[in-house]
Amino acid sequence: MSGRTVLWPGQDRDPDPxxxxxxxxxxxxxxxxxxxxxxxxxxxDAPDVVFALSRHGRRLVRCGGTAxxxxxxxxxxxxxxxxxxxxxxxxxxxxxxxxxVLTGGERAAVLLSPENxxxxxxxxxxxxxxxxxxxxxxxxxFYRRALPAWSTAPFTRYPSERVVEAFLRYRPRRxxxxxxxxxxxGFAVLGHVLGAATGVPWExxxxxxxxxxxxxxxxxLRPGDTDLDxxxxxxDGVTPTPSFDPGGFQAAGAVRATPxxxxxxxxxxLRPGDTxxxxxxxxxxxxxxxxxxxxxxEHTVSWFRHRVGGGAMYFHSGATLGQQAFLGFxxxxxxxxxxxxxxxxxxxxxxxxxxxxxxxxx
Length: 362
Prior knowledge:
This protein is of the alpha+beta class. The chain is built from twelve helices and twelve strands. The chain has helices at 30-44, 86-98, 108-112, 125-129, 142-146, 160-169, 184-198, 202-214, 250-253, 259-270, 278-283, 351-360, and strands at 3-5, 49-55, 58-64, 79-80, 219-220, 256-257, 289-291, 297-299, 304-308, 311-319, 324-330, 335-341. A hairpin with a 4-residue loop joins strand 10 and strand 11. Helix 1 runs antiparallel to helix 12, helix 2 packs across helix 8 (202-214) and helix 6 crosses helix 7 (184-198). Mean pLDDT is 92; it is low at 1-10.
């Protein structure tokens, strides 16, 4: 067994209280932080890059890139954050549990298809959100179906009904809860489970329970070719990519947002008491699973969690066909970092490592 899972409802104690505003003696000053952000923008080597940092609510933003500046300032564009969308879905599940809409322990297949589940997986929302449902990263026939549109819109070849059907017919090799395996498939299913449990589509649930209460007006959950959206690029940094359409994988990768909206989202995790989602925001910072050698890899329902310095760092990265994102925050420093860029990751791509290292080394 590579991980153990502990479910979270009702636990409001903050695992990493945010200290009162103030600085360590060795904390970098604002000028040094600005230099670090500028250096990170240059290192990313992408057509459009934004590194945005919040420290005790004070923001610093640095933009740049190898391409000519777009018509709208880079910091005002909406960027595709790919798998970092899972941090929104994990928070949504936690909020719905706190509201009593579901417990997290229901059988997902029953919620999706009450009359047709005898041999379906016994995974629950708790298993799906912790990547312990026994599912592969993608459905077995995903690549075959997506191949005709691989370079433009592969996920559109796998719509919502197909995701649900693939889950209901899948026979896990391992019992749910006994093995950790990162799964976009599992999070996609989770989104449809939440829709089935509430009678409201995932996108509308996110808008009602997260975007509205947190004031995230610069965030979108549907693809669109507008002047507000950043244009992704292939690995060459030149060839444009179409706006990302997640097909039936909305809950695993649909969010696109401005850097400032993403900072607002992270600042809510740093100061939950200032928001209508205080209980859920505290809960998603609690480790619910440990895995790996010595059980040193920690996970919450929304974030990867690593021990750094004198505290913990929470983070999630993501990528689409032509964009990348990194979201992270450190309660011990009252600091959050958003990094976005418009270039598909390459071998030894520096983007995520640069963002991770910048936040970890503060």
